[in-house]
Amino acid sequence: MKLTKKIMDGIKVSNFFKKKLKKTLLFYKNQGHRTPHLAVILIGTNPASLIYVQHKKLACKNVGIKFVLYHFSKNISETSILKKINHLNNNDKIDAILIQLPLPIHINSAHICNSISPYKDVDGFHPYNIGSLCQKNPTIIPCTPRGIITLMKFYDVPTYGLNSVIVGASNIVGRPMNLALLLHGCTTTVTHRFTKNLKEHTKKAELLIVAIGKAEFVDSSWIKEKSIIIDVGINKQNDGSIVGDVKFKSVIKKASLITPVPGGIGPMTILSLLQNTIDIYKKNIKKYLKY
Ligand code: NAD
């Protein structure tokens, strides 16, 4: 098999779905409906956050979502942010709210994320949305897990019964990913920095998802022959290049399918943000449809 055939191309797949979203929004516009509206709160000037927000803005513009950025200085108080979120929660024209993480250390991220209305919580981090996913009744699924599932479905990965191992147990990737994989019939193991003999777990994985933020941590000796490898990591090297948590060149020879970095899960995560925004929007405009 040609090595390129093993690559799950997040750019190609996300563009495929973005075209569909654009058509959907054009359809709603032609029916006389308003444009979907995403409000983004950015605090401070973390360089990575500034870049991520720009990518999200561009993606929204391309499909026809109204994107409004509320950019605050890093010294803003938690109370002022909560006030802003309350205002956005109560504005009927705003479908979705996103808080760009990480937040400055004087602000409690959990307080802030939990203050977003669960119906506008486009990142799906609110306890209501995580709890619903946990109870097999998904509402808004966090963007990276949703993007990974969309990508695997596109490549016809048969998830039911698959032995999957996730490396990394964060609230934004590892934990919700575990719930999403369970929903798709995988037998899951979640590992983290305290896991003993990590390699013994990863070597048994038919599906391995790595999200730890450590450049090229996993090499071919960590993986099972013909396994499916999803690399979530984004690590900036000293020379400015970006690499994942997986040593792509060595792992691709042994894997049956693999995601590259860049061009794998990053674009799929942004696609999910658009899909989540439009899903919320569709529910909102339905409320006003007259039959
Ligand atoms: P995090 O720091 O919140 O969590 C990291 C997790 O990895 C923790 O559970 C920790 O226990 C585990 N870990 C750390 N070192 C480990 C080790 N040596 N062995 C086993 N487990 C270990 O990180 P995060 O927010 O989940 O992000 C992880 C990576 O994914 C980062 O590189 C981030 O930039 C990237 N990311 C990418 C996307 C995307 O769209 N592609 C989205 C979110 C995060």
TrEMBL record:
Belongs to the tetrahydrofolate dehydrogenase/cyclohydrolase family. Residues 8-123 form the Tetrahydrofolate dehydrogenase/cyclohydrolase catalytic domain. This is Bifunctional protein FolD. NCBIfam families: PRK10792.1. It comes from Buchnera aphidicola. The gene is folD. GO terms for cellular component: cytosol. SUPFAM superfamilies: Aminoacid dehydrogenase-like, N-terminal domain (SSF53223), NAD(P)-binding Rossmann-fold domains (SSF51735). It catalyses: (6R)-5,10-methylene-5,6,7,8-tetrahydrofolate + NADP(+) = (6R)-5,10-methenyltetrahydrofolate + NADPH; (6R)-5,10-methenyltetrahydrofolate + H2O = (6R)-10-formyltetrahydrofolate + H(+). Homodimer.
